[in-house]
Write a structure and sequence with these properties.
two-stranded antiparallel ribbon; Beta Polymerase, domain 2; 9% strand; single chain; cca-adding enzyme, domain 2; 4 domains; Hypothetical protein af1432; alpha+beta
């Protein structure tokens, strides 16, 4: 006997939505109407939900949740009273969801149940909230921004009334209740989308970006030198860099580094505009502040900090003396962590190409840096250490040998730099 025989089960949420959109379904969630926790356990389901009854299918391990309602009891997104009981209907369960396109269900016969206009909004490419209860959970602001990012290529837009409600939530201080870990979790998911910039423009449009990531928000309206930045605005440039990073690399670290690389331009005194002398060091400090505030993992923080600090000098490789190149390798720990240095070069390439008219240009600076690093890497430090008359002389001799290798490589190099 099938463990679901006799149960009223519906496929719900994203799986139904993505089926309608013709997208690949990667995860399936189910709602069970009319059952009790005891009945689910008797059938072999394993309960995993603490706040509300969620069960794992004994064979497929898919999630089956009992139909439930939610009632706001306190500020923030933890303050909810959950009611799961056999009398809760499918329509009541779907009503607690965020967007109409996520409030779709499908029965065992394949019939789609759509009580709140989700199919019409899929056709109209609208991200629309289901009810005023949307305002009870500030996480939904982040989720809407993420869905705007995920479905940007399909033409989805946030409905005007939903955008207004999100603004009202921000003005009411709801986003202050978001814990750093959840904010970073949603940022991570958004950065890994194909067009991550839409996440941040959606948050900026409702005022949430200024509360959650003011270091990014303040870049809009900051002018840059037209000689190097035909796009002008520092905020626009940052999102162009992010989109280019998404084209160049799948890694979260590279995309986060692209997002953060110019934070320091937001702190340049207006009387110095459009120049931003010293913004690299200021950007690196702001990366540390943001990382501490949002509890960002070290591997993301470190690459972002290095990109912020060194992207300017990486671009100017043709102007550097061999000694300065070696200092960059030492400061970035390139010899011990070549993979991270390669990510740094990718983030810098995104910065170079994330400008008006530069998207298809070749970033030959990266080739120069790779060639120079290869020249340094072949220095036989073991042989130098064995030949040194005293241990104290080993570091000096190794550095001298690396500098000599770099000097020779620079003299032999014929790789042009990008203009």
């Amino acid at each position: 006997m099938n463990v679901t025989d006799g149960l009223t089960v519906y496929l719900v949420g994203g799986a139904v939505r993505d089926t309608v959109l013709g997208r690949t379904v990667t995860e399936r969630d189910y709602v069970v109407v009319g059952a009790t926790p005891a009945e689910m356990q008797q059938r072999g389901f394993q309960q995993v939900g603490k706040d509300f009854p969620v069960f794992l299918h004994p064979h497929t391990k898919a999630e089956y949740a009992l139909a439930r309602t939610e009632r706001k009891t306190a500020p923030g997104y933890h303050g909810f009273a959950i009611h799961a009981a056999p009398e809760v209907t499918l329509e009541q369960d779907l009503l607690r969801r965020d967007l109409t396109i996520n409030a779709l269900a499908q029965d065992a016969n394949g019939t789609i149940i759509d009580p709140y206009g989700g199919l019409a909004d899929v056709a109209a490419r609208q991200l629309r909230h289901i009810s005023p209860a949307f305002a009870e959970d500030p996480v939904r602001i982040l989720r809407v921004a993420r869905f705007a990012t995920r479905f940007a290529a399909l033409g989805f837009q946030v409905a005007a009334e939903t955008r207004d409600l999100m603004r009202a939530m921000v003005n009411a201080g709801e986003v202050e209740a978001l814990v750093p870990e959840r904010v970073w979790q949603e940022i991570t998911k958004a950065l890994l989308e194909a067009q991550p910039a839409h996440f941040f423009t959606t948050l900026r449009d409702c005022g949430a970006l200024a509360r959650l990531l003011p270091e990014l928000d303040r870049l809009w309206g900051i002018p840059q030198s037209a000689q190097w930045h035909p796009e002008g605005d520092a905020g626009i440039h940052t999102l162009l860099v992010l989109e280019m990073a998404a084209r160049l690399a799948p890694e979260l670290e590279v995309r986060f580094a692209a997002l953060c690389h110019d934070f320091g331009k937001g702190t340049t005194p207006p009387e110095l505009w459009p120049r931003h002398h010293g913004h690299e060091a200021r950007s690196a400090e702001l990366v540390k502040l943001v990382s501490n505030r949002l509890k960002i993992p070290n591997h993301c923080r470190d690459l972002a900090r290095l990109t912020a600090q060194y992207h300017g000098i990486i671009h100017r490789v043709a102007e550097l003396r061999p000694a300065t190149m070696l200092e960059v390798f030492e400061a970035t720990d390139a010899l011990r962590r070549p993979a991270r240095f390669a990510q740094l070069l990718t983030a810098c390439e995104a910065d170079f190409r994330g400008r008006g008219g530069y998207a298809e240009r070749h970033y030959t600076q990266a080739e120069v840096w790779r060639q120079m690093l290869a020249a340094v890497a072949v220095v036989d430090v073991g042989a130098i250490a064995r030949a040194a008359p005293a241990p104290a002389e080993i570091p000096t001799r190794i550095r001298a040998a690396r500098l000599a290798a770099l000097t020779q490589a620079v003299a032999l190099s014929r790789i042009p730099t990008a203009s």
